[in-house]
Specification:
Elements lengths: L3 E3 L8 E5 L11 E16 L2 E15 L6 E16 L6 E5 L8 E3 L5 E3 H12 L36 H10 L1
Bound molecules: zinc ion (ZN) (2 copies).
One zinc ion (ZN) binds next to loops.
Length: 174
């Protein structure tokens, strides 16, 4: 599928892309673990700017920061941006519709082409969580023996059963 779309081929009334192939997927950075897809609509605003709206979904495999187990993370992300040319340097810029001024994302591209593959790659990487946890309350690994505490209790948790607090709580249960 052609993922480079020249500005000149985008009609005023817009054009839609249903992208089911995953040729754009950044395999070098993150492992794909299921279906990947995107739906994108490009609309020409004028000769020098294109509006992009879309949605992408992907399943990726991540490693939990706490227990180091592999888990599947579902990305479902919507996009809204304007891709426009800057007359001064002939580079193309990505600008969030919401943020007027301020954080401009600059895509260094010399050609009047919407690079859907690059946009999808960036969008996917942005959607990945900063803290990667297999579940919110992941118990992690035992610092003493390395057992995955989500799976079983290794028993070396500070000899809890012999502590005075454990005795107290045992008494309370009676
Ligand atoms: Zn975990
Ligand atoms: Zn342990």
């Amino acid at each position: 599928m052609q993922l480079n779309v020249p500005f000149s081929e985008i009609p005023d009334q817009g054009v839609e892309f249903d992208i089911q192939d995953s040729s754009w997927f950044p395999d070098d950075v993150v492992e794909q673990a299921g279906a990947v897809g995107a739906h994108i609509r490009l609309t020409r605003k004028n000769d020098t700017s294109i509006e992009l709206r879309g949605r992408m979904h992907a399943a990726v495999a991540l490693e939990c920061d706490r227990c180091l187990e592999r888990f599947i993370f579902e990305v479902d992300s919507s996009m809204q941006m304007v891709i426009s040319t800057s007359a001064q340097n002939e580079h193309w810029r990505l600008q969030d519709l919401e943020s007027s001024g301020g954080d401009l994302e600059t895509l260094s591209q010399d050609r009047p082409v919407v690079d859907l593959a690059e946009i999808l790659r960036q969008q996917l990487l942005l959607a990945l969580p900063e803290k990667k946890l297999c579940m919110e309350n992941c118990a992690g690994l035992c610092p003493h023996c390395g057992t995955n505490l989500n799976e079983k209790d290794c028993g070396c948790a500070d000899g809890a059963s012999n502590s005075p607090f454990a005795v107290l709580s045992a008494l309370k249960k009676k």
